[in-house]
């Protein structure tokens, strides 16, 4: 998914060697043509908490937290504080094609998975990079902007697990509430909304390869359809959260329009270290955070809302004494509530590196574009290759032989990109993926700068479950992330079948016009296997195991009878008053597709749940469990 970003950015600097002289031009141009001085929705105001006590303290200003804080501040009598560990967005984050260049920067928490010997074997240290946004807007600032809601059956399943109010019709209501869909062909669709705060549209530029990709899907028996509509199975040109060619993060969509609202304060570069909980009453009183090297405490009259994401939310809960008692005791954190925090970790894992070479100049290659022309086209018109959705032009949902018999709950998703690992001659892709020199030099260097495209098949509903655990009681130590990819062998079997369908797509008649053919150089570690065999695909899956940046599930939503759950269907932490979790961590099971849109939906619904409780006098209701 990083490929177009890297190709376009490499084009910007390719004509000038290693010089970054175009970067100041880009920054100056963005400022002159589009940004803060002329933007009626200018940047949120960064400030220390003006008061020592607020009605609501929202921890994390990311994909969920920005939405929650914005919606709560709609009640003028409530005072809301939003705490974000990172800084504000900048001009570069707004350029869709530059997504990958934001990884491994100060805007990224720069997490890595633990080595397991079962996945990420082609990466340095056998560890996968797990980018997470450390910036106002969170991972909606680092992601590839793909707008995918998931499958109807995902939400029906959530409700069947004992979570009333989380079925598809309720979810659809909140998807539409956020959405301002600007695709003309969806204007009258009952499955889409207009006039919401979050802009959704197609990128204004595309290659002929994505058109062929969609036609190939039709050729092998699938439909070209709106995958966010009535049915998900099928192929389409990707839609994304962009606005006039620029990224539309949740910070831009939900916080900038309310920057002058007097009852909301936003404090950036404010790292929350723990939730303050009364050990006798088990009530959240406020939070402790560090800003500019100084420790601060702010109290919450009504609730603390934890929206720090599937890695940081469980970390903060455990640091606060809420989590698995054996683990907390081992770390030295006093236990207040024994809950399965940090369990149930799920992610969409994909196979990377599948490369198709073409004879025509239709892909994105480093030295093809005029850097000045490319930049000026984006600055003046908001058009051209710099508007691409990170690196993905096409999406598809397909059924393997293991899928639901109805055919309406596909088990594999494709991301199609008009470039591959070779396309930047090793300048950046290998670093973002963390590929070893041996793998890159053996397989991809021989085809450096050749026209190529790729399909990344990903597993939609993994059976494997991982964990997030504290490394220590120090809140500034990164947590231990065990993705546990492929601990269930069925996951590999399904993904192998997905790769085989991807190969059928690549062999469709429509691709022959480009001379498209699969690149057959074998990976080190897989060279003893026959290329294209099931065993070879499994080997490549285990070597180039790609996260699609969708960690979820580490504060599972469920009824009190579910001993693995952390929050109830109103997203209140079991047994703790005045504390909710509203972000990707509450998902009982991962949704079938990119998770950013579902997280925004969760935030929209979560904000309404809070309003319903407190505006009707039910704010003190909790789901009690036995404290430790």
Automatic annotation (TrEMBL):
Superkingdom: Eukaryota
Record keywords, A-Z: FAD, Flavoprotein
PROSITE patterns: GMC_OXRED_1 (PS00623), GMC_OXRED_2 (PS00624)
Domain Glucose-methanol-choline oxidoreductase N-terminal: 133-156, 309-323
Cofactor dependency: FAD
Residues binding FAD, per UniProt: 135, 272
Gene Ontology MF term list: flavin adenine dinucleotide binding; oxidoreductase activity, acting on CH-OH group of donors
KW Flavoprotein (keyword) present: yes
Pfam families associated with the record: GMC_oxred_C, GMC_oxred_N
Alphabetical list of SUPFAM superfamilies matching this protein: FAD-linked reductases, C-terminal domain, FAD/NAD(P)-binding domain
Protein family: Belongs to the GMC oxidoreductase family.
PANTHER family: FI02019P, GLUCOSE-METHANOL-CHOLINE GMC OXIDOREDUCTASE
Record's protein name: Glucose dehydrogenase [FAD, quinone]
Gene from which this protein is expressed: LOC107219048
